[in-house]
Design brief:
Distance between the termini: 22 Å
Largest sheet: 4 strands, antiparallel
CATH topology of the largest domain: Glycoprotein, Type 4 Pilin
Strand order of the largest sheet: 2-1-3-8
Strand content: 15-25%
Number of domains: 2
CATH superfamily of the largest domain: Hypothetical protein ph0010, domain 1
Structural class: alpha+beta
CATH architecture of the largest domain: 2-Layer Sandwich
CATH class of the largest domain: Alpha Beta
Number of helices: 5
Shape: globular
Length: 191
Amino acid sequence: MEKKLTEQEQKILLEIARSAIQSTIKGSQEVLEKFDLKFIPPRLQKDGATFVTITKDGELRGCIGTLKAYQPLFIDVREHAIAAATQDYRFSPIGKEELSQIKIEVSYLSEPEDLEYKDSQELLEKVRPNIDGVTFIDGPRRATFLPQVWEKLPDKEAFFDHLCLKMGVSINKWRKGKLRVQIYQVEEFHE
């Protein structure tokens, strides 16, 4: 991952996320307007991949993102903030009354890398808790956990079991079959 974002760049991205969520929930058209690029630092105009996570009272309230960079970082954050607030299938859209209660976290992802391994034991040895985000891929199915998920699932086997469940396959799939595995790291910052 290239050099970390500055505190100012992080602050701008969090402000963009908050503004996008508030504008969308309040029904304003402001979020649809283009940002004036002269106020966006050049680094935030480069393509970047992010996840935006919304919590309320310390509990997950929405999380949407992408693993591959395909658009400018500031636009990626804006789009995923809106999606996390309104389109995460696990939750109802955030209501106006919740806006003052939510906290926003942005995870800026490194480029995913394929992890080569020969068996489930080597997979357990190679993945680094609290550092690596992990994606399991099995044909058309895929699921990922950000590195922050290690806080809730610190045991590697439980982490992999739950990732298989998220992907919609047997929890033993990672033990019994060969999955394509990718790892990545994140730079995480929050309000």
